[in-house]
Amino acid sequence: MLANFLIGLREGLEASLIVSILVAYLVKSKRRHEIRYVWIGVSSALVLVVAVFSAINVAFDQLSFKTQEIVGGTMSILAAGLVTWMIFWMRRTARSLKSELEGQMSAALGPFALATVAFVTVGREGLETAAIIWSTIKGSTTAQPFVGATGGILVAVILGFLIYRGAIRINLSTFFTITGALLIIVAAGVLAYGIFDLQEARVLPGFSDRVFDISSTIPPDSWYGTLLKGTINFQPDPSWLQVIAWVGYLVPVLWLYLRKPKPAAAKPEPASVTAG
Fold this sequence. Notes:
With 276 residues, this protein is mainly α. 73% of the residues lie in helices and 0% in strands. The chain has one domain. It contains nine helices and no strands. InterPro entries: FTR1/Fip1/EfeU.
C-alpha cells in the first residue's frame, strides 16, 4: 500500500504539474477558451490508460501458472527499468520541462494539436504509472494496493491544484530527489521479485538456493511482514540470484542518482591576436 501510494504520489504530481503548466500557459496567453481541448486530451489519455490496464489484467488471468510467472517476472523487470529511466529523465529535464511544454503549446495552432499535446504528455505519465503499479499488485487479493495508489494520485492532484493556485510552495527539486531515491529502493524490490517469478517458472536457475530463511522471525502474513513486502518487496527467504540482483541494482543506481553532477568545465577563451 505504501509503495503504491508513493508511486501514485510522484507520478500523479508529475502529471498534475504538466496539466497545470499547460493550463497556466493558455490563461497567460489569453487563450482561456481553448483550455477545454487540454481536458479532452487529458480525458482521452486516462481512458487509454484504464483500457490498457484492464486488458492486461483480463489477459493475464487467462494464462497458465507458468506463463503467468514468466509474464509477471518479465513485466516486473521491465517496470524496474522503466522506474529507473523515469527517475533519471525527470532529474535531467525538470528544469526545462516548463519551457519545453510552452514551446509545444506555442506551436499548437488548433484544437486537435492542443488536445494531442495534453494526450501525449499525460498519457506517457499514465502508462508509466500503470506499468509500475501493475508489477506490484499482480496477484493481490486485497484492495490495499489499489487504495494506496489511488490515495497517492488524489493527493498529487490536490497538491498540483494548490501549487497552480499559488496556495502552497514546495521545493520540487527536493521532493523529486527524495521520492526518486525511495522509488529506486522500491524498484530494486520489484526487480528481485521479477527474478523470483522467473525462477519459480524455472526459466532462471537457483530457485531452491536460499541465502537465508527468517520466515519464523518475520512471518509473511504478519503486519510487519506485509509492510516490508508492500514497501520494498521484502522476502524472508530470498534466493542467491535475487539478492545478487537486488544489490547489483540498488548500489550503483542509487550512487549514480545521489551523486552531485560535475560542474561544466569552462571553455578556454580564444587567444587574442596581437598585431606586430
